[in-house]
Amino acid sequence: MHTEKIYNDLSEKYNVAAPRYTSYPTMPYWDVEPFNRPAWEQSVKLSFSESNEKEGISLYIHLPFCESLCTYCGCNTRITKNHGVEEPYIKAVLKEWKMYKEIVGEPPLIREIHLGGGTPTFFSAENLNLLIKGILDDTHIHPKAAFSFEAHPANTTAEHLQTLFDLGFRRLSLGIQDFDPKVQHVINRYQSFEQVQLVTIEARRIGYTSINYDLIYGLPLQTFEGLANSIHLVAELMPDRIAFYSYAHVPWIKPGQRHFTEKDLPDAHDKSKLYEIGRGLFKGYGYLEIGMDHFALADDELFLAGRSGNLHRNFMGYTHQHTQLLIGLGVSSISDSKYAFAQNVKVVEDYLQIVNGGELPVFKGHLLTQEDLVIRKHILNIMCKGDTNWNYRAEPFGSLFPALIRLKPLADDGLIVLTSTGLRVTPEGKPFLRNICMMLDARLWAGSSTSQQFSMAV
Q1: For labelling alongside 431, which of 54, 81, 137, 320 has CA 20 to 30 A away?
Q2: Does residue 230 sit in the same domain as residue 325?
Q3: What does the angle CA 73 – CA 312 – CA 389 come to, to the nearest 5 degrees?
């Protein structure tokens, strides 16, 4: 095992800007010029024909509205207290979904639905009912369907929980981040332990089978003691899963993060220690580590998927199921057909105008090459399984040899075991998954960007 000094030295060495690898290629390196809507629609048709009957499809629905701005947030949001925006937005999402159903030509088999944001519970329970019933109209539901939604503990009501449960939702994710009042003030994100407790108890009473809490380490003004106290409070409620994310400081993308300065953030050494404190406490409370940033109890489906080799990662993060076709609906949503990525326009008014004009609101994307598909497979293996193997002769992987040279120092540092036919991540290497994947990222190394595109790895 590494001593604390060695770990600190490695954290400093590998604290570079790095992608989070919810996709490959990562968005800054998409080749957007060849992309067009007809090519995207054709890739959707192909993917649907290959996968719908066998595994079904996944839907991500982006609900961007929030009543206040959380200054740590990197998501695409629209801040408003005007709830009159709900119905026009829902109608547009349902129109977009109708276009996709027309493209594939037959009722889709729904395997997953995830409501993200923004704050999905900004919407009234009545309007969420309208949305989901409209989505499920003229579709089939897979017998292993998994429906989930993100919620703000401060505005999630029993009516929200019951309505979505009646529609088939069984998974709930609560954004907590930190219970320390000083941290909550500086990031403008307020919820009390009592509010979280109330939502959790009510959800379990109704019948939700999996509850996730989001926590973040590396936030402004966060202390070792404060984070430990937050985790002790979380353990009183024992959620089934915990997502323990590294704070991504990207003020050049999200100006709201300038509410505080870099002086308010822990340095790389202290941020690494925050992670290790959290990791140790979670393990002490019986949580098992999964991939990157995630922990779960031994009977949770996410852990079971990791153990069985079925863990998958996409634009929504880790999931216990894999569908080849993921369709993103709503402003800024990203879709994945396996053969191509597509992103919707990012401004609500633009989205409404385009959809109501009868067109898909995609504005950029990437058509994956054969080498993209191979590298993507290896990066997914590393992120989900902790190992991967390659075949020189069978795979069109011309960038493998320079990748092996880049990987050698990581092997020397004990982060991976590297052979001529693959690699395995060591226990010491788990905190550095982003760095390991980066060595295989041919498009990043071939890129010409001189500006920082990503948050720091530590």
Answers
A1: 320
A2: yes
A3: 120
Q: Which domain holds residue 392?
A: 1-25+369-458
Instruction: Residue 391: give its domain's CATH number.
Output: 1.10.10.920
Compute the C-alpha angle 149/322/140, nearest 5°.
Answer: 70
Report yes or no: 338 and 325 within 8 Å, Cβ to Cβ: yes
In this structure, are strands 422-425 and 387-389 parallel, antiparallel, or unpaired? Answer: antiparallel
Q: How far apart are CA 8 and CA 79, in angstroms?
A: 39
Q: How far does the chain reach from its first CA to its final CA, in angstroms?
A: 20
Give dist(CA 301, CA 126) in Å, integer. 30
Structure tokens at 94: 């349902």
Cα(123)–Cα(399) distance, integer angstroms: 47
Angle formed at CA 138 by CA 134 and CA 142, multiple of 5 degrees: 100
State how far the Cα of 112 lies from the Cα of 57, in Å rounded to an integer: 7
d(CA 66, CA 193): 21
The answer to whether 340 and 39 have CB atoms below 8 angstroms apart is yes
- Residue 119: how many other CB atoms lie within 10 Å: 24
pLDDT for 422-449, tens place per residue?
A: 999 999 999 899 999 999 999 999 985 5
The 10s digit of each residue's pLDDT in 361-380 is 999 999 999 999 999 999 99
pTM over 0.85: yes
Q: For the chain, give the number of residues.
A: 458
Write the burial class of residue 112 (CB in 10 Å: 0-12 exposed, 13-18 middle, 19+ buried).
buried
Cβ atoms of 339 and 311 within 8 Å: the answer is no
State whether 299 and 396 are in the same domain. Answer: no
Helix residue ranges, H only, 82-167: 86-104, 125-136, 158-166
Give Cα 353 distance to the centre of its chain: 28
What angle do helix axes 193-206 and 224-237 make, rounded to 10 degrees? 30
Residue linked to tokens 């629609």: 41
The pair of three-digit structure tokens given for residue 325, joined into one six-digit string: 């076709």
